[in-house]
Amino acid sequence: MTMKVKLYPTDYVIVDSQTKKPLEGYESIYHYTSVIEMLNEKLINEGYEYISITELPNEEKEQYKQTIKETEEFYND
Description:
By secondary structure, the protein is mostly helical. It has one domain (about 10-75). The protein is about 40% helix and about 5% strand. It has helices at about 30-45, 60-75, and strands at about 10, 30. The protein is extended, with a radius of gyration of 19 Å. The mean pLDDT is about 90.
């Protein structure tokens, strides 16, 4: 019986930017959340980080919603 393997767009690998060959071998696959965590470890020293928009305080979420709504209205006019 042949095992069916599926690749997912939410999984990432580290590659040489020119050759697209893996730098860590074919065993190292990272879920996108791990990629964000690794990036945040570097950014936190500079005083900022990536977080999910749903983790923002309500006031900030409402401002994003308003901006999205205004942007959609602008492009739909």
